[in-house]
Amino acid sequence: xxxxxxxxxxxIGLLLVLLNxxxxxxxxKMPWLPDDAESLVASTLSEREGVSLDGIQIExxxxxxxxxxxxxxGKYAGDRIELSWIANGHPxxxxxxxxxxxxxxxxxxxxxVIGFFSIAIGVxxxxxxxxxxxxxxxxxxxxxxxxxxxxxxxxHCLDQEKLSFLPxxxxxxxxxxxxxxxxxxSLSFLPRSHPNWKITLAIYLPALVFxxxxxxxxxxxxxxxxxxxxxSYHDVFLFFRLYVxxxxxxxxxxxxxxxxxxxxxxxxxxxxxxxxxxxxGMGPFxxxxxxxxxxxxxxxxxxxxxxxFCLFIPAAMAIALFRHRLLDIELxxxxxxxxxxxxxxxxxxxxxxxxxxxxxxxxxxxIQDTVVSALAAFGAALAFNPARRRxxxxxxxxxxxxxxxxxxxxxxxxxxxxxxxxxxxxMDFFIDQVKSSLPMVHLGIIVFIxxxxxxxxxxxxxxxxxxxxxxxxxxxxxQQVFASRQAVYTEEILDLSLEDVLTDKKIELVI
Length: 511
What we know:
Layout: H1 3-27, E1 31-32, H2 35-46, E2 51-53, E3 56-58, H3 64-67, H4 70-73, E4 80-87, E5 90-97, E6 99-100, H5 107-129, H6 133-151, H7 154-157, H8 165-187, H9 197-224, H10 227-261, H11 265-294, H12 303-308, H13 312-322, H14 335-364, H15 369-399, H16 401-417, H17 423-437, E7 444-451, E8 454-462, H18 471-476, E9 482-483, H19 499-504, E10 509-510
């Protein structure tokens, strides 16, 4: 990729990061009705009775988003708003003090952490793989998705300053582009390197149309301060939800098709983890929030809760990238780095436990704070070291499994092998140790001795059947690793030229 497009792409990513931070700052000031008033509005609307806020009548709960927008209402958490409704044919009203929407749970900060984690992965991919279409698509997919997730809602971001229009406007652009880029990315895994320009245009055309329409309707409803204009925006947004649903389903189907057609297990695992991230991350949002909204039903879970499941997307993407070499990225992760991150986590947990135990002891027993702190620290310390060892072992098993099993196998073999003096018994012991670590059906060994420039079999051991009738080939090419394609994850450093011979003799790997 040329230097100017490369630098411009990273610069746009930096702008989006700054915009996300500003958007979270605006979201934290978002006012809302207290729970009892919100429940009153919901129940009154369900009975088809009239409800109005400061004289503006609403038809559904979604319109609270518009009326409580700071640009429209001019109100903040702590200010009061007049709530009027009709109960049993009689008009009622009360003054309600607005609260902060995110007072109970810091959802904006949660989204920001998930988004920044995702963006870090995207930048890493783009720096290494910007020459490849798939690498560029994944970078822009992560950027647009993270921005749409962090900023959550356009009206929520608006404030009295004009600069607040910027994150709201960018939100609709990223929200519309994310499904299109996702579908384009999924099609890039098909046998053809990438769709032709006509298919690409067809993919992005609906996104561009929705960007233009939603931006115009959004600005019109805000600048005119008209609830009728907002209702036009809301009606179009229902069709936009259908577009999002269809594109995500299309991408999932494309990934499933490629998964079924992939010959190598390595590629299948890459696709599988992308699918896992897509299903676990986007599934709750699509099925339990977006779909009910499309059908004009009450959502099963709130948008904020559904979006927290997006944590699975960068987690699954990281596993696909670093463990299964998605986009042919091979990265050796230092165990000491993982342990350092783990240490920070454990120290934070340690402090948290001290605080929890301190509060618990002080409520149960009437003791001075210094005694409570000492007892809490002692109790947490008792659990600290065993927990640290358990977590380190879990990290080794989960993320460094090959090295973990290899070290365990070598340690077990070394502790006993030096006591065995008979070579036949040593071969048997070696076979038993390997089979206890690897899921093998049969295993055989030939030990060669070099004599007069020839390799002569010295020891031959078979397990169950004669699997070693390949000495003709092994004499000539001892350094090669022969394999059957169906038995391995990757084709690197492997010789597949004897696949027919291996298949005939029911052998999968020869080292």
